[in-house]
Write a structure and sequence with these properties.
This protein is mainly beta. It has one helix and 36 strands. Strands 23-24-36-27-32-33-34 form a seven-stranded antiparallel β-sheet, with no helix packed on it.
């Protein structure tokens, strides 16, 4: 028994070392945590508690599958368990529509069902629901309208004049500055009126992202204001759901280095503790997720700690973990992938509605096969490539390595590793007239650029290669390669990663041909590892 216990302890230590070697780990293992609790681009997070479980959703924009669903037992340790949809039912999303797609979803649990509401800028309001958040979600297009954003449903426990309990939807509009309230059918499938403006105040510019709660006889709307990079979190309060509303700022940057702490969710635990989960805009890293304690005084919340004694909270760097009454395993959202499953890992997203013919995990089990997809637009400008298979940066610094077996068929077929944003840089194997070469290239979203610039290239007498990119804490990336996974040679020049359109930079894989004719080429990736 003692030997078995020792083996178990060693196994746990090795597991923890493996996690900490890969990415940022918020759980400090001593009853405390460090912010951010997710050092990755989970923009506009919303969180609910259902019994002993917490579920988080976040914006996806043009990335597919869309709206990740994460699960936790303690608000600190999170895993991806699902996505709300695999694709959006509009032809335009078959190509990258940077910055569009799903914005600021809300998740709620009502009468045994989980609901997620979200808007796209030009297609309107959507609702998805399910009885099992890790299972299939049914997607409904509720209202075909433009310029709506950030919807949140609310089922009131107070009967209306007709004795019925009313359901509502609160939302903002593009560019913020006003909040609107609609009556909604009890099943969430219909909006019943044109809406009423319930708040607008020049002291709260760019107010958006409302989340509606009820506590102690008050209706509370948590809403970010002041803009993404340097904003704050506003709370509105009223005894009447239609207002008028009082306002108070509950958290701001203050003297901390956490810029723009706002837009997120209030969560109340069984223990009675309240917590506020929000994002911080970290530029090329995207909008990373922080967790703040919440204290109530005179029916007003304050998030974080009031360091400046100005009645407004400031973000905490470290704090004691939430009291959930449950032991939780140290874990982080998925990153590395050995491609041993018959399904793509939930950390992966395409840049457009995916197609089955882009890849296979079955033809060569244990490897991901990416087929060459023709991209004649702008001679291979990656801004227009839909079949980029990417994932979020998981920490301030990391190294990613992948093993590729390249089977290019037509001249200029290429496959490899990419850092993608409004500017991008890649390392690829390229089919030439005489064989294969390694190529480092870069480019930008400028549509006037007629092609991606090749920075460096070299002939290689091997179809198998190890490709690597290293990112330092300043966001500077450097590519290298090896033929034996032992000695790596640098290639190309150092350059800083850049964010995408409303998203952080991403890292991942591709296989394309810049020609018009369809190529039967492909590349097998044996694994993709963070370290």
């Amino acid at each position: 028994m003692k030997k078995r216990h020792q083996l178990l302890v060693c196994s746990i230590i090795l597991s923890l070392n493996s996690i900490t070697a890969q990415i940022w780990v918020p759980d400090l293992g001593n009853g405390t945590y460090q912010n951010p609790v997710i050092y990755a681009d989970y923009s506009d997070p919303d969180v609910i508690r259902v019994n002993d479980d917490f579920f988080l959703v976040a914006s996806s924009f043009n990335c597919m599958p869309g709206i990740p669903v994460l699960h936790s037992k303690d608000l600190i340790n999170w895993r991806i368990i699902n996505h709300i949809y695999q694709s959006l039912p509009f032809e335009k999303y078959n190509k990258p529509v940077h910055g569009e797609g799903s914005w600021a979803p809300s998740i709620r649990f009502h009468n045994g069902l989980y609901y997620v509401f979200f808007c796209t800028p030009h297609e309107g309001l959507f609702m998805a629901r399910t009885g099992d958040p890790s299972g299939q979600w049914e997607l409904h297009h509720i209202v075909d309208v433009e310029m709506w954003e950030d919807p949140c449903p609310f089922w009131d426990d107070t009967p209306g004049p007709d004795g019925e309990k009313n359901a509502y939807l609160v939302r903002s509009k593009l560019c913020g500055n006003a909040l609107y309230l609609h009556k909604m059918s009890a099943d969430g499938t219909k909006i019943l009126d044109n809406g009423t403006m319930i708040f607008q105040d020049i002291s709260q510019p760019t107010i958006e992202g409302p989340k509606l709660y009820k506590r102690g006889g008050y209706y509370y709307i948590f809403a970010p204001a002041g803009g993404v990079p340097h904003g704050w979190q506003t709370v509105l309060r009223s005894k009447n759901i239609y207002g008028p509303y009082e306002t108070r700022n509950i958290i701001h940057q203050g003297n901390t280095d956490i810029n723009g702490p706002h837009q997120g969710a209030l969560v109340e635990l069984k223990s009675g503790e309240c917590w506020f989960m929000h994002f911080q805009d970290k530029g090329l890293y995207g909008r990373i997720v922080h967790l703040q304690p919440v204290n109530w005084m005179n029916n007003w919340p304050l998030a974080g700690t009031d360091i400046n004694n100005d009645g407004i909270g400031e973000p905490v760097a470290r704090y004691k973990k939430p009291v959930t009454g449950k032991n939780s395993t140290v874990m982080v959202p998925q990153t590395s992938d050995e491609f041993n499953s018959d399904k793509l890992g939930l950390q992966w997203q395409w840049h457009a509605n995916p197609k089955n013919e882009w890849y296979s995990l079955l033809i060569n089990p244990g490897s991901l096969r990416l087929y060459t997809v023709n991209n004649p637009t702008q001679n291979g400008n990656f801004w227009f490539v839909p079949n980029l298979l990417l994932q979020k940066f998981p920490s301030p610094a990391f190294t990613v390595t992948t093993r590729i077996d390249f089977k290019g068929d037509m001249e200029n077929d290429r496959a490899g590793l990419i850092i993608m944003g409004e500017r991008w840089k890649y390392l690829a194997m390229v089919k030439t007239k005489t064989g294969t070469k390694l190529e480092t290239g870069e480019g930008s979203f400028n549509q006037c650029d007629d092609m991606t610039l090749v920075v460096e290239s070299a002939e290689i007498n091997n179809n198998v290669c190890y490709l690597r990119v290293t990112l330092n804490p300043d966001g500077i990336c450097q590519f290298s390669y090896s033929t034996d996974n032992q000695k790596y040679a640098l290639t190309g020049k150092e350059s800083k990663a850049q964010k995408g359109r409303w998203i952080g930079a991403k890292v991942g894989l591709f296989c394309i041909s810049p020609g018009i004719s369809k190529s039967p080429g492909y590349a097998d990736f044996d694994w993709f590892r963070f370290e």
